[in-house]
């Protein structure tokens, strides 16, 4: 996210009761134009809307022939994994989609959002529409039609407070309208088309308030544009002028966002959880465009985008834990967008993690289960019974938030070691002061961890009551007083106990990929430039046995540099004279440090003095301190070795 977007007044976003990083990003409002043109420029070569007619439904993702072919394949049990996926969707539909409780317009506790309602509506309508298309059972049609009418009778879809709610609600009505078009009553079709016009299209065109998602370079751009495009393609014949405006404004505004978020290598600045959300809506939009207009107008050709599913594949370590930098929870969740990439690029190995989660029953309760039906359009084209593990041990990406990840054997067992290292800057969207931090899994245990996000729901209001703003990314913001967001409480280095520089970027300088060493070197100089002249960090797995961290710190000429080397861990530490012993169940690891300046072993509490900070039970911080005198350079080597 460009720095200017963080200096503005913003609308905070919702996270459910389960602390999940899959919820929506922060919408940034600021004065000025949305850059909306009175007559949006038609993409080069134009788009052919001639097939978007009333007699051509369904058309989003799958047409009638595609549904017939899919149904035949599922009924014949031609692919065990495809059948399992279908049965999972049907299970979600029957247990949640058929919920008899009426959908009602209700703001959440912050009085800002109806996002829960939008998502509930999407799950109900989408899964019931799928179930009806696949079974012909009228109960699913009746339920979907009831819920379509319910949300179309709302006074609005909350566009003025939180436009993301509109994006998800528009998606719900779009798929219900399109997939059930020929079976819905004429009055329901009319009501749905009118609601999409009034509550979505006209609100997106309204200049009485700012619609900054068009300029955002984060998941808001993807979700809002994705929902509007699906709605426009589904109901085009009713309001062609407005629908065309939505489609072409999305094509215009989405391209620069994609360039920021995925170029050059595909790693996503906001981390794995927001990838699961934003990229899912991104591929939904691309698939909807291709299935109806025959093109996505080059959006999928954005540099780095074709590589991003590989990034996501490498973001999961052992024990179903993400490399959870920035605002992300540690527990991994399904990356449903990977199905589109596997189909698009004929690469089923991108589903290596997904098939494992599907078979383990994790898909039914995954964070984005409301969109499960969409992946059947891609799964139907794949051989799901021949998924191989990735062949490369290391993945690296530069861009706004450079990262390097290592899987030593991809078995997810005690022999597999996992390492994730990140650079970037705290001022990025959803950023923490975590540049230089790393997670490390070995021998079945996560030894170096990241606390991850703290739920925004109460935190933003508490900080506001104290005169702060959780979404102020400035250097002196109270955001950085939050325990889990500050650099002192990450597995990285801090100098003179000072905050990392918000605008300082840690850059990836070298990847290490040899037969004996796997890792990377990052330059952290900008991050600590007010406290040290330079800083570099190398983190690597050596001989498939030890983790070695090498730090070089040069002090400024005007002051010394007290180095705090910290690692957050769930292992119980015992400080001895020459090492720290880390014990996690029956597993033991030794942390040893040496340097040109003698380090002093330390532990720090993970209990915050701030009443608003989330508790961190069962966690510890270990490491050392050492002081580098002014104008001197010191090197430190820290090793994690098994007992």
Largest β sheet strand count, sense and barrel closure: 8 strands, antiparallel
Number of discrete domains: 2
CATH topology of the largest domain: Glycosyltransferase
Poorly predicted residue ranges: 1-44
Strand coverage percent: 15-25%
Total number of strands: 19
Gross CATH architecture of the largest domain:
Alpha/alpha barrel
Structure description:
It is a single chain. The chain has helices at 3-6, 64-75, 80-97, 115-135, 138-152, 163-179, 186-205, 219-234, 240-262, 272-293, 308-313, 338-344, 352-359, 376-379, 456-465; strands at 10-11, 27-28, 394-397, 403-407, 418-422, 438-442, 445-448, 493-495, 507-513, 517-523, 532-542, 546-555, 561-569, 572-576, 579-584, 587-595, 600-604, 620-628, 633-642. It is built from 15 helices and 19 strands. The protein has 643 residues and is an alpha+beta fold. It folds into two domains: 49-305, Glycosyltransferase (Alpha/alpha barrel); 394-642, Beta-galactosidase, Chain A, domain 5. An eight-stranded antiparallel beta sheet has the order 9-10-11-12-19-16-15-14, with no helix packed on it. The protein has a five-stranded antiparallel beta sheet with strand order 3-4-5-6-7, with no helix packed on it. The chain has a four-stranded antiparallel beta sheet with strand order 8-13-18-17, with no helix packed on it. The two termini are 43 Å apart.
């Amino acid at each position: 996210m460009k720095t200017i977007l963080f200096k503005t007044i913003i609308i905070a976003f919702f996270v459910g009761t389960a602390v999940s990083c899959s919820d929506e990003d922060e919408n940034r409002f600021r004065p000025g134009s949305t850059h909306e043109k009175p007559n949006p420029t038609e993409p080069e070569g134009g788009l052919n809307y001639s097939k978007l007619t009333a007699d051509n439904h369904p058309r989003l993702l799958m047409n009638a022939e595609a549904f017939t072919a899919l149904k035949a394949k599922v009924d014949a049990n031609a692919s065990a994994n495809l059948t399992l996926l279908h049965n999972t969707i049907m299970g979600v539909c029957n247990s949640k989609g058929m919920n008899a409780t009426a959908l009602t317009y209700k703001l959440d506790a912050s009085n800002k959002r109806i996002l829960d309602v939008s998502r509930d509506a999407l799950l109900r309508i989408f899964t019931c529409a799928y179930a009806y298309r696949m079974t012909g059972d009228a109960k699913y049609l009746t339920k979907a039609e009831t819920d379509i009418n319910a949300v179309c009778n709302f006074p609005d879809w909350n566009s003025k407070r939180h436009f993301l709610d509109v994006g998800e609600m528009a998606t719900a009505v779009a798929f219900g309208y399109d997939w059930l078009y020929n079976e819905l009553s004429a009055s329901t079709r009319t009501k749905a088309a009118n609601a999409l016009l009034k509550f979505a299209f006209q609100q997106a065109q309204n200049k009485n308030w700012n619609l900054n998602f068009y300029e955002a370079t984060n998941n808001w751009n993807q979700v809002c544009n994705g929902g509007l495009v699906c709605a426009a393609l589904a109901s085009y014949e009713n309001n062609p002028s407005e629908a065309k405006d939505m489609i072409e404004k999305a094509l215009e505004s989405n391209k620069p966002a994609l360039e920021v978020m995925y170029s050059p290598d595909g790693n996503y600045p906001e981390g794995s959880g927001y990838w699961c959300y934003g990229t899912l809506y991104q591929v939904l939009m691309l698939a909807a465009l291709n299935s109806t207009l025959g093109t996505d107008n080059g959006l999928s050709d954005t540099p780095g985008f074709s590589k991003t599913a590989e990034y996501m594949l490498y973001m999961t370590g052992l024990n179903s834990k993400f490399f959870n930098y920035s605002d992300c929870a540690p527990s991994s969740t399904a990356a449903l967008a990977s199905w589109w990439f596997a189909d698009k690029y004929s690469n089923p190995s991108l589903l290596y993690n997904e098939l494992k989660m599907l078979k383990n029953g994790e898909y039914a309760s995954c964070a984005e289960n409301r969109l499960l039906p969409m992946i059947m359009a891609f799964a139907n084209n794949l051989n799901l019974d021949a998924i191989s593990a990735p062949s490369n041990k290391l993945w690296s990406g530069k861009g706004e938030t450079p990262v390097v990840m290592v899987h030593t054997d991809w078995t997810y067992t005690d022999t597999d070691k996992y390492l994730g290292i990140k650079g970037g800057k705290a001022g990025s969207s959803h950023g923490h002061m975590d540049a230089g931090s790393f997670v490390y899994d070995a021998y079945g245990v996560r030894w170096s961890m990241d606390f991850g996000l703290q739920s925004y729901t109460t935190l933003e209001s508490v900080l506001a009551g104290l005169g702060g703003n959780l979404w102020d990314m400035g250097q002196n913001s109270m955001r950085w007083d939050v325990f889990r967001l500050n650099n002192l409480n990450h597995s990285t280095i801090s100098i003179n106990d000072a905050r990392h520089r918000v605008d300082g970027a840690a850059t990836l300088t070298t990847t290490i990929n040899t037969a004996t060493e796997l890792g990377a070197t990052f330059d952290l100089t900008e991050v600590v430039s007010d406290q040290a002249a330079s800083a570099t960090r190398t983190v690597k797995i050596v001989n498939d046995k030890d983790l070695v961290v090498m730090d070089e710190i040069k002090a400024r000429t005007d002051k010394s540099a007290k180095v705090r080397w910290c690692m957050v861990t769930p292992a119980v530490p015992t400080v001895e004279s020459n090492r720290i012993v880390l014990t996690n169940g029956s597993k033991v690891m030794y942390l040893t440090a040496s340097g040109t300046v003698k380090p002093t072993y330390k532990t720090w509490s993970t209990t915050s003095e701030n009443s608003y900070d989330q508790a961190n039970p069962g966690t510890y911080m270990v490491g050392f301190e050492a002081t580098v005198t002014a104008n001197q350079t010191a090197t430190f080597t820290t090793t994690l070795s098994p007992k």
